[in-house]
Amino acid sequence: MQVDEKKTDYLDAADCTSCKATAQMIIKARKDGVILNFDRAHSMKPCPIGADSACCKHCFMGPCRINARDPYAKVGVCGATIDTIMARNFARAVAAGSAAHTDHGMAMLELFREVVNGKILDYKIKDRLKLIEVAKSIGIETENKADKDIATELYKELERTYVQLEGEIPFAKRVPQKTLELWRKHDIVPRGAMREVVEMMHRTTMGVDQDYENITKQASRTALSDGWGGSMVSTEISDILFGTPMPVNAVVNMGVLKEDKVNIIIHGHEPNLFESMLVSVNDPSMIQAAKEAGAAGINLVGMCCSGAEMMARHGVPHAGNFSSTEAILVTGAVDAMAVDIQCIKQGLAAVAKCYDTTLITTNTRAHIEGALHVQFNEHEPLECTDEIVIKGISRFKHRKHPIEIPNIVNQGVQGFSHEYISYMLGGSFRGSYIPLNDNIINGRIRGVAGVVGCTNPRSKQDAAHIALVSELIRNDVLVLLTGCSQIALAKAGFSVPEAAIFAGPGLREVCEAVGMPPVLGLGSCVDNSRILIAASQMVKEGGLGESLADLPVAGAAPEWMSEKAIAIGQYFVASGVFTVFGGTFPIIKNTKFHKLLFQGLEEQGLGKWGFAEDPMEMAKMMISHIDKKRKALGIDKTRERVLMDMSDRRQI
Ligand code: NFS
Ligand code: SF4
Q1: What gap in Å lies between CA 184 and CA 273, rounded to an integer?
Q2: Peptide bond connecting 317 to the previous residue in cis, omega within 30 degrees of 0
């Protein structure tokens, strides 16, 4: 992993990232002769045909390539048109992303089953109220029933989310009636996630579904089985087992590492590994062992989505998002990094080796060549997590690299579950979404945006997230955040109530009255399902239309990179939300498939896709969509009054 001696044109660190800590580590890495994802991105030119989604490799008569400048001039060997090719590529990304969230959710559900059966004793039902609420929401009778019986019934019901062959997934019951009717009309209500993913893979093989509209329909159904299925089960079960998030103070950024302590990072997506790590690092015998090795203690921090989830639930410090996971190893201070599934760059193994950090994989599904594998077993979780701590202590004892920890931390409030948002705005006795709706109707809040998703080393890390969100809140749009986006904004100092000064006058007034920041961090990427539930609650409270598509809301992923982001985008779109992606989009403009995604789906009553490279342009598109919806609801005039009120008031 040496820097290429001949190569001198690496991007300036300050152009690679807005994150000062990461920039400092990029500079150090280059000095140390270590290549990070940023430099790899710079030296790997993306294939332009693939970037346009103009190639097909679904069979071996090909691969076939189409010229994006003249996309209808040619077809594949089998005769597939550009629309078929792009739709199939897109649909496969949806299938892969949905499979990832679904498999993660299924793992949580299996864990829940074993806890309920009494076969796993290390975890228990922590949030009884949530158990009952979730059970009730899908029609399970809970009166005069023992928790165990409710939980058993809930498991059986939710299992259908995955394995059901016919019918509708259980959480379809949470979808506003009018939206559900529309899905039924289009025949896109998911049956079971496994069925939808398998069918999607089948239909996109050579010689099956060759009508881009029909392919897109199944892509919607598959994506909905993720958003309202796999992801939602994951969030709800994790809340039941580990607690529903409530606002907590938490620190983010690389300064959370401590030179005098054994630093252990958990990076991945499943909360169970992390929950057990908390137990292991607090075990007195482990603390004693760390002290004997000369450390002041053990310092457990998170990264990426499992980090975001643990930060939301327990206030565990968070060291950074996706693009920073290699960079943080350059500090030399990381004694162990343990990973489970998803968004774990293979490049970590080489960087970890350079700094002698122990990289540990823990999940059967995700090994990395060159990393140490310590299998995590839910039935005996501490065997694995204790071992991770021991490995960390031993690396601490033999530290041989100079340590440089960027001295940057940012405070903030995290952990806004949809339950807490209603409680916060509605007051402790009458939690409800009525005040949120009222503030939207009276125009103080213009609308709500969900800004989510990854960072991508092909663009300046965090920059588009920060620019987009700043512009949205400046225009009185309340922003809900998850995943790596949430961390980007937390590092930029937006997660404190004082950040209300960056908001427009209406949103600022609401934030100051409630004492909340103008951006609300909800947790990991599967917690995007919290946004769906919040939106459904808004419809149910009344005054903002009858379907999700009526709401003055929009979604965005300004720096996305994962197939999971495409799945999320498609379930937001199919749910009725205008969803704007930044950076890149795998499609050729002025094709029939492009027209379908960016316009046709909305004509069918669903949401639609948008794309802009520039975050300011993204914000403009989202705000004008929100205004369009306000107008359709007949609440466009109220804002003028509020804004006039505000300036009048300011004059006084
Ligand atoms: Ni979401 Fe989480 Fe981050 Fe993107 Fe990856 S960690 S699941 S995919 S990169 S937000
Ligand atoms: Fe080419 Fe058709 Fe095969 Fe795709 S499925 S590689 S377009 S022949």
Answers
A1: 39
A2: no
525 touches ligand 1 (CB under 6 Å): yes
CA 104 to chain centre: 13
Close Cβ partners of 617 (under 8 Å, ≥ 6 residues apart): none
504 lines ligand 1 (CB under 6 A): no
Rounded to whole angstroms, the Cα distance separating 172 from 163 reads 15
| Percent helix, strand and coil across the chain, each to the nearest 5 | 55, 10, 35
pLDDT digits (tens, 9 = 90+) for 441-485: 999 999 999 999 999 999 999 999 999 999 999 999 999 999 999
| Distance from Cα 90 to the centre of ligand 2, integer Å | 15
User: Which residue's alpha carbon is nearest to atom 2 within ligand 2?
Assistant: 78
Q: How far is the CA of 639 from the centre of ligand 1 (A)?
A: 35
What span, in angstroms and rounded, lies between the C-alpha atoms of 192 and 210? Answer: 23
Ligand 1 geometric centre to CA of 159 (Å): 25
Domains of the chain: 82-242 (1.20.1270.30), 254-397 (3.40.50.2030), 413-651 (3.40.50.2030)
633: left (phi over 0), alpha (psi -120 to 50) or beta: alpha
pLDDT digits (tens, 9 = 90+) for 531-585: 999 999 999 999 999 999 999 999 999 999 999 999 999 999 999 999 999 999 9
Q: How many CB atoms lie within 10 A of CB 267?
A: 27
Nearest to residue 565, comparing CAs of 526, 613, 612?
526
- 8-state DSSP, 230: I
Q: Are 311 and 302 in contact (CB under 8 A)?
A: yes
318 lines ligand 1 (CB under 6 A): no
3-state DSSP assignment of residue 346: coil
**Ligand 2 pocket residue status of 616, Cβ below 6 Å:** no
Query: How much of the chain, in percent, has pLDDT values that exceed 90?
Result: 93
Phi, psi (rounded to 5 degrees) for 355: -110, 10
Residue 420's pLDDT band, with cuts at 50, 70 and 90, is confident
Probe target for ligand 2 pocket from 77, 92, 202, 208, with the most ligand atoms within 8 Å of CB = 77
Q: Is the pLDDT at 639 greater than 90, yes or no?
A: no
State if residue 75 touches ligand 2 by the CB under 6 angstroms criterion. no
Query: Tokens 């009636």 map to which residue?
Result: 177
Task: Find the mean pLDDT for residues 586-609.
Answer: 98
**Rounded to the nearest whole angstrom, what is the distance from the C-alpha of residue 158 to the centroid of ligand 1?**
24
Q: What is the mean pLDDT of the chain?
A: 95
Tokens of 624: 């004008």
Tokens of 82: 């550009």
Alpha helix ranges (H) inside 258-369: 271-281, 284-292, 304-314, 347-355
List, in order, residues 6 or more apart from 590 with CB less than 8 Å away: none
The ligand minimizing its distance to the Cα of 207 is 2
Q: From atom 5 of ligand 1, which residue's Cα is the shortest distance away?
A: 343
